[in-house]
Amino acid sequence: MRILVLGFTGYLGAHVAERLRALPGALVLGGGRSPAADLDVDLARVRPEHLAKALAAAAPDAVVNCAGATGGDPVTMAEVNTRGPAVLCAALREAAPAARLVHLGSAAEYGPGAPGTRVTESAATRPVGSYGATKLAGTVAVTTSGLDAVVLRVGNPVGTGAPPTSLPGRIAALLREAGPGPEAVLRLGDLSAHRDFVDVRDVARAAVLAATAPHPLPPVLNISGGRAVPVRDLVRGLTALAGFRGRIEESTASSPARSAQVSWQCSDITAAVEGLGWRPAHTLDDALTALWEGRRTS
């Protein structure tokens, strides 16, 4: 089975590609802007006809699109998160219409959740900010493409390689910078929000199951831990692993606007359990340990 992973050097893409390479009989091709890429492609810039030629030559049985922008200006995010999936779908329709497309979306597409409630895939989408809005537009491009496609709406991934643009990655970077001493100070925003964290290894496993499933899948599947965790608990877990003995200063004044607007986020993963036979195998403690120690093992 030939499987193309777009964005294979990124945070999620590297984990997905690694897990796919361990799959018996799988030939994994990497697509992106890296010199190591088998397919040199920038979804934010490439023309559909050029991508179609490259896809025809690669002849993938499945494509996993992990390319995405989590930060930056709105134009960049729109180019990567919205234009990218739309161009990919157009090229696949021309060059490899039978290929399974697995696109990594985001729980940010839902927007604010109601405390105590898990959102299902049929819930209204009310994203806050450019990231959630551009990811939602990318999801629409995929689900209306007419292809054999599924969008995995990923919660807040935690694990090795988490970028500083993500909450876990930022906290880990701040802890490494501050050091463990009693004089160290960790200045953070409001930590009262609840988020649905998921181990990045579980995300990769879901992507592999989706790419290789022998049956049609629902258009959208939630991939998350299935429970809302106070951000404060994540910080406590990381500070314990770091042996941090300093002081934590929490201020609502320095909190990102999205944190204030989205105080609760939790996804219902029933459809993924039923459709993929998937459920999280790792706890949040497992994910935090892997993040802090830099481990990539399954």
Salient structural properties:
single chain, alpha/beta, Rossmann fold, seven-stranded parallel β-sheet, two-stranded parallel sheet, 13 strands, NAD-dependent epimerase/dehydratase domain-containing protein, Epimerase_deHydtase, NAD(P)-bd_dom_sf
Please state the structural category: alpha/beta
Q: What CATH architecture label applies? A: 3-Layer(aba) Sandwich
Q: Number of DSSP helices? A: 10
Stretches with pLDDT under 50, minimum 5 residues: none
Neighbour order of strands in the largest sheet: 3-2-1-4-5-6-11
Order of helices and strands: EHEEHEHEHEEHEEEHEEHEHHH
CATH topology annotation: Rossmann fold
InterPro entries: Epimerase_deHydtase, NAD(P)-bd_dom_sf
Organism: Streptomyces virens
Family: Belongs to the NAD(P)-dependent epimerase/dehydratase family.
Protein name: NAD-dependent epimerase/dehydratase domain-containing protein
Quickly describe the structure:
With 298 residues, the chain is of the alpha/beta class. It is 40% helix and 18% strand.
List the helices and strands and how they pair.
Blueprint: E1 2-6, H1 11-21, E2 27-32, E3 39-40, H2 48-58, E4 62-65, H3 74-95, E5 100-106, H4 129-143, E6 148-154, E7 156-158, H5 167-178, E8 185-188, E9 194-195, E10 197-199, H6 200-212, E11 220-223, E12 229-230, H7 231-242, E13 247-250, H8 257-261, H9 270-276, H10 284-293
Parallel strand pairs: 1-2, 1-4, 2-3, 4-5, 5-6, 6-11, 7-10, 8-13
Antiparallel strand pairs: 9-12
Protein name: NAD-dependent epimerase/dehydratase domain-containing protein
InterPro entries: Epimerase_deHydtase (IPR001509), NAD(P)-bd_dom_sf (IPR036291)
Family: Belongs to the NAD(P)-dependent epimerase/dehydratase family.
